[in-house]
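Progress narrative, work stream C.
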Amino acid sequence: MTYQSSIAHADSLIRGQHGTWDGISAESVARMKLQNRFQTGLDIARYTAGIMRHDMAAYDADPAKYTQSLGCWHGFIGQQKMISVKKHFGSTERRYLYLSGWMVAALRSEFGPLPDQSMHEKTSVPALIEELYTFLRQADARELGMMFREIDAARASGNAIEEQRLLNAVENYQTHVVPIIADIDAGFGNAEATYLLAKKMIEAGACALQIENQVSDEKQCGHQDGKVTVPHEDFLAKVRACRYAFLELGVDDGIIVTRTDSLGAGLTKQIAVSKEPGDLGDQYNSFLDCEEIDPSTARNGDVILNRDGKLLRPKRLPSNLFQFRAGSGEDRCVLDCITSLQHGADLLWIETEKPHIEQIAGMVDRIREVIPNAKLVYNNSPSFNWTLNFRQQVFDAWSTDGRDVSAYDRAKLMSVDYDGTELADEADERIRTFQRDAAARAGIFHHLITLPTYHTAALSTDNLAKAYFGEAGMLGYVKGVQRKEIREGIACVKHQNMSGSDIGDDHKEYFAGEAALKAGGAHNTMNQFAA
């Protein structure tokens, strides 16, 4: 429904009440409806799923049309990110939000800061999704409210051309509401627990769920040691649980991102069930580190596999976990990815130990031999030392090409002494083009940084504290924060407006007319920022 047709519809309803609703303004009703376009989280999930499906098709046609996101741990952070995107680029196209389980654990748990091991309350994940969308919807209401005020001002001044321009802008308004790829960890339990949590996340607005193939009770951060994977059938049951949740709730094109941690996971908690040679369970078990035994040498409590007429004993650790063969990680990743796509996944996530395009591409090439349109979500992780990694990659490339690298110590390339050198400059250029190059070469549809705003919050707070509590005093805040906000056009410099004060004043006027007691009068100090 357009703005004008919405006004007409409200006017018809009001007139049908035989004068009892005459205190209601049809245009005010239309404005409030437009400012609250999404009535429920499911409305958001259906809308954003359509966006992601459109973007996935666009990427298949042109890898230059990859997508990006930043992880956000609070609704305000997500809101300011999308306001910034609209301000600088004029569109939210192909820009999403990422919800990081790591940041939920570290920042949003009632237990206090926790490691990324699925120990936080699982209800905190859908709560953050709902919070993020509450703030994004408020960003819409705020921006539209300012546009409505401008329409009223244009009418009051008799500027019909400006009024029409603004009305056209309202009709073509682009929402701040964008897709969220939400981390469901390893499902926080069995397949039923996964399904129940998936429903809550979808109802909160998530159109894309990212689930990993680790054990749920001893889940580890993707960039830490001690990761333990589960057999494919166990994982696929959880993938199906997520799909059932989407279908039950009417989000028919919801997106499932399956993450494999097999590259860095050398352990499994259980041996897969196998019914015949070569089946999925047998393939999983084939990667186990085993030793051939004679039946007479079997020990009490041994687990024994029969393969090709040989009896094999998988190596079992004191923790009761079984060990995979060293060097089998990439093969297991490829099998994980192909299996996931063949059983209902839409996108893949391969957790790597470094950002190396050819390493990723080598696995994607093998996956695409079976599934040509396989696409990845990739973690541009803050756990990587990007400077060191890329300087070492350039060092290695130069060495291979026979170039003189005697001026550089490969192990110490992070040193500030190398800043500004030719090697450092080439490394920085590779970092700058990493997302574009990886999208073209390695099938990466979506680039995200899992926890960037965790780091930016720490860095900006450190800078402010150092200045404010030091010699700069109040100038530390004014020069380092407020003056920059004003000159760079940061929306929240008018923090009263950002928090909804003007929206509230508009509502007061709708409800009470001239009797409204509004906050935005001449004595509101926010007027100091009008210029």
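Work stream C, second folded protein:
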Amino acid sequence: MDTVETDVLIVGSGPAGAATALALSTYGVPNMVVTRYGRLADTPRAHITNQRTMEVLRDLGVEERVRERATPQHLMGNTVFCTSLAGEELGRLRSWGNDPRVQAEHELAGPSAMCDMPQHLMEPILVDAAVARGTALRFDTEYLAHEQDAEGVTVTVRDRLRGDTYRIRARYLVGADGGRSRVAENAGLPTVGRMGVAGSLNIVFEADLTALTAHRPSTLYWVLAPGATVGGIGAGLVRCVRPWTEWMVVWGYDLEAGPPDLTEEYALSVVRQLLGDDEIPVRITSTSAWTVNHLYAETYADRRVLCAGDAVHRHPPSNGLGSNTSIQDAYNLAWKLRHVLDGTAAPALLDSYSAERAPVGRQTVERANKSIGETAPVFEALNVLSTADPDQMWRNVAARKDATAEAEKQRQRLREAIAAKVYEFNAHGVEMNQRYASDAVVPDGTPDPGFARDPELYHQPSTRPGAKLPHAWVTRGRDRLSTLDLGGRGRFTLFTGIGGDCWRQAAEAARRELGIEVATVVIGPGQEYEDPYGDWAGLRETGDGGALLARPDNYIGFRHATATPDAADLLTGALRQILGHARPAPEASEAPEVAD
């Protein structure tokens, strides 16, 4: 049997697999992607691309290509609740950062804006860039099994065109093969939850709905109609794929009865019910059935086999977290593989992948499923769950317009129920507040201050080790750059200021001793980078002479509040721990003060 060799074999070309390949090739790591399919995604599937993911894509050099194809943020945000698109509107929620009170939060949080980028448009950008940078891609190649040994993983695959099998020998295997992952199953990764919580249908269609939607632009139009609460994601949904002519309907079905026969006649009947106008020409382009899942893996790795994306967290599309979490899994994993493979890190570094990403996966699954339940109060406020008679249902909906005390209470309940959906459509904190705790983060001994506001709704920047490097605009001559632009790019970055010469020398000593790249960024008046707005000084939580070490994924790995004669030892020790060459240092009994 023939054997092909590579450093990293990635099974799956979806968001997780494609992003892993892109990051590895960007870092110069030989890798191969195999997919059992003969093409990339041909339906919209995932679409919300949040601010943190856009920061990742910015660092990987594809942000602008994504933005060129995506629906921009300002066209995403009028989430509409209605009886049909042509029918009565029940209320709207300003969403996805488009509430004026939230817009500033987004602008302060990062250099990139979220957008709506359907998966069938996203995957080609990620894959094309990965292949251009060195990834080997094989379509129609099905993963069958793998065996591990001390030096690597031998994977058996089948060429679905020829019908024969062959082996691929890799030093590491990444399972990014989706919600029915055979890699994760064969690796025996323990999971919590279950598959098949509810049933949903996707119906993709073309129709010019400009007259019904352009005046209230949105990614999602929620339809509260008879049958909308059966299975699915809690309501009927009309999703904009491309303004305002490409669409997808999501509709539920009873799992016990099984999915209906998805004939064109059936699909048209569902679409027309949700549109509410039978005169609009509609062309069905695809249909599919799927299940709402509530399952996450407790660990993402088995020795040299590491899994990412839907292989380890499976949940409904609520909150738009799926592809975002998958791409961020890949970003976390790729730099660690790079350092282990080039010998600058110990294999122990890879243990931090599960430690850091599994809690995020669990939060994603729990939040997405909780959001489904938060739709029910909208139905309850309209009193439509009390009857199975459609005529009575519409009478109950119409009652909210009466000039009575009870109708006034109903209107208030409806406003409150719609407003509560902010946890699905404006969960900025869920998207941006990920804090890592692992051996690849060196605690500084300071107490955890927690969050000043709701951590699901509001992003709270911090330089505490384990938090994402805060964004601030700084200048270099006439250029304006984000602090995130100064970090990343596959290397460690040490941030300091005036009086931080000891840290600059420490970075040089660490480079020599450990053989890794440590870029140094000095921010202050008269330095290469200046802070004209004072934003960075307000965010860094250290003195001018202090230091922040950003890992290649722009997460803080080490922090020290002031200059110190021990800078070289402290920084080299921190890098040794992060790279898995040393045991974690015990936390100091007395925490050093963090500068105001």
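The chain is about 30% helix and 25% strand. No further action is required on this item.
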